[in-house]
Write a structure and sequence with these properties.
Layout: H1 2-22, E1 43-44, E2 55-56, E3 62-67, E4 72-79, E5 84-92, E6 104-110, E7 116-123, E8 133-139, E9 152-161, E10 171-180, E11 208-209, E12 225-231, E13 236-243, E14 248-255, E15 264-273, E16 279-282, E17 286-288, E18 293-296, H2 313-316, E19 322-330, H3 333-338, E20 343-352, H4 373-381, H5 385-432
Parallel strand pairs: 1-3, 2-4, 11-12
Antiparallel strand pairs: 3-10, 4-9, 5-8, 5-10, 6-7, 6-9, 12-20, 13-19, 14-18, 14-20, 15-16, 15-17, 15-19
Helix pairs in contact: 1-5
């Protein structure tokens, strides 16, 4: 029994320690922006030029590929007739490579007849510098629609459009496929007509430090308040905010002042993505002359199921609860004018409204489309996904260690008790035996049989 318990604890500790060791670690040269941190679970996949040969994407899966200028890559997904489905693609050009205004990443979801269920695109626009950009396509179940509603095979098409003057290097891709369960009967089917649009007062309290991550995966949690960071020229930082049903998100970014003279147009870019990594809203880019400057997202509606039936991306993107992501990027041109040092960055976040207001009931597990108590704790503590994994793993290590220690202490206690009792029994037998019976010999066993219990000087061999 002791050996079985010990066998269970040790593998748990080893597995937990291996999980800690497997957490992503990327070496970054001093002064260089952090590279994009891909999800460790992302699997390699190869998009094909034809839908016929396309590889499948599984629900809940994250994948990696790359796309060249003019590239058209097909993948396939198998959808039922009940769930809403989302496929996002994030393009990661190498820092420092040349991009143009209209360089574009486009994601389309098609049925077997070639009809488009939906499509969206992301461009670099006026902020013409390399940084991660992304968007998604989706299949939304609608009662009065006959297009893309059935259970069948569907195809995902990811396209890259680049100017001839742009870099010809491939863009790395991170692709994610999620499904959202249908809601139980009684859910709204019409888009909202209005919502509160006045900006709230700045969040109170003292500004706190929070270091941004380099990707969706490594983004730290934020909650309501003002947050300080530093951003280097050419760097992109990600943050995530839990926003529940009925809650309204407001966010702004301030770029701090710096010594020096000069001017950089479109220096700072900030955008918002929803939990399925769909592009929701872009704030106006900040031009920079060394003086502090600020930009904010336009007022967005509270998170509501019925938002998905609106034609505007900034409304239908606020269609479910979960982690909403802020991506902030600083132009590498800033280094030429103001030097390579990081500039002060302040993020102000307001979350208005009560949690759960107007929440529909999902007919299945909500998965990432919910805000849990653990999410709120992660936001308060500033945890990223790898930090949360590490924290959970260390708790497992601690629990396993306590379990192993408890087993060992109890085992030693039992061994000590048994040894003492055998010693006492041996002494009593020796006192009552005849002259031929030596110490520690049981007369009933004979001189050739030594019990050994009273004279053992260490734990039993099974330990």
């Amino acid at each position: 029994m002791r050996q079985r318990s010990r066998g269970r604890v040790a593998p748990a500790v080893v597995a937990a320690l291996c999980a800690v060791a497997a957490l992503p670690a990327q070496a970054v040269a001093a002064g260089e922006p952090s590279p994009y941190t891909y999800e460790p679970s992302a699997k390699p996949v190869r998009g094909t030029a034809s839908s016929t040969d396309s590889e499948p994407l599984k629900p809940g899966g994250t994948y990696r590929d790359s796309i060249r200028p003019g590239g058209r890559l097909f993948y396939r997904v198998q959808l039922d007739a009940k769930s809403n489905a989302y496929v996002s693609a994030t393009a990661v050009p190498r820092p420092g490579t040349k991009v143009e205004y209209a360089d574009e990443l486009k994601v389309t979801l098609q049925d077997r007849a070639g009809n488009s269920c939906s499509y969206n695109s992301a461009q670099f626009s006026s902020a013409e510098f390399a940084r991660p950009i992304g968007t998604y396509a989706h299949r939304t179940i609608e009662q009065d629609s006959t297009s893309c509603q059935g259970a069948d095979t569907y195809f995902v098409l990811i396209e890259r459009t680049s100017k001839a003057t742009s870099s010809s290097e491939p863009w790395e891709l991170e692709i994610r496929h999620l499904t959202e369960p249908q809601v139980k009967a009684g859910g709204a089917t019409a888009a909202p007509e209005s919502w509160p649009s006045s900006s709230p007062a700045p969040p109170g309290g003292q500004a706190r430090d929070r270091r941004g991550g380099s990707s969706f995966y490594s983004a730290p949690g934020l909650y309501e308040g003002e947050w300080r960071d530093r951003i280097k020229p050419g760097e992109t930082l990600f943050y995530k905010v839990p926003v529940d049903w009925g809650q309204q998100l407001f966010a702004s970014a301030d770029l701090g002042s710096a010594a020096g003279e000069g001017y950089v147009s479109n220096a700072l870019s900030m955008v918002l993505y929803n939990p399925a990594r769909g592009l929701v809203e872009s704030a106006s880019t900040i031009s920079y002359d060394g003086k502090q400057n600020s930009s904010a997202l336009d007022p967005l509606p509270p998170v509501a199921y019925e938002n998905r039936f609106d034609s505007s991306d900034s409304v239908n993107g606020m269609r479910f609860p979960g982690w909403y992501y802020l991506r902030v990027s600083l132009s590498p041109e800033v280094e030429k004018v103001f030097g390579p040092q990081g500039l002060g960055l302040s993020l102000r976040v307001n979350i208005e409204g009560s949690r759960g207001k107007g929440a529909p009931a999902y007919a299945g597990p909500a998965g990432p489309f919910q805000v849990t108590d653990d999410d709120l704790s992660a936001a308060e503590e500033g945890q990223s996904a790898p930090a949360a994994v590490k924290s959970d793993t260390m708790r497992l290590v601690a629990a396993a260690g306590i379990g192993a220690g408890t087993v060992l202490v109890l085992g030693l206690g039992v061994w000590t008790l048994v040894a003492r009792r055998r010693a006492a029994a041996g002494a009593g037998a020796g006192a009552g035996a005849g002259p031929g019976a030596g110490p520690g010999v049981d007369p009933g066993m004979g001189a050739g049989h030594d019990s050994g219990a009273a004279t053992q000087s260490g734990p039993p061999a099974a330990w």
